[in-house]
Write a structure and sequence with these properties.
By secondary structure, the chain is an all-alpha fold. It folds into two domains: about 45 residues; about 45 residues. About 95% of the residues lie in helices and about 0% in strands. The chain is built from two helices and no strands.
Length: about 90
């Protein structure tokens, strides 16, 4: 009978420790989530973006593509025409 009481006492201690651990884990996770939500809110409120920078990037990219396309268009057209003519010759 003594052994059963000892096992029961050990079981209660383990459950008590587990419960304390679970409570501590929940408290820490709640603290982390609260901290993360606060930082996210602060970031979203303070974020204004860099619109002039993005406009500059888009304009420069468009200019480069237009310049390269203007220079390379005749050659690309010739390559495509030759490839299509070669494909027609296969039939």
């Amino acid at each position: 009978m003594n052994t059963i009481n000892e096992i029961s006492n050990v079981s209660r201690k383990v459950r008590s420790r587990t419960t304390q651990y679970e409570i501590e884990l929940l408290q820490r996770s709640n603290l982390f989530i609260t901290h993360f939500a606060h930082r996210l809110k602060r970031f979203l409120i303070n974020e204004r973006g860099d619109v002039p920078g993005w406009v500059l990037v888009v304009l420069m990219t468009t200019g480069l593509v237009t310049a390269i396309w203007t220079i390379a268009a005749p050659r690309l057209t010739a390559i495509l025409r030759n490839s299509l003519d070669a494909m027609n010759g296969i039939r």
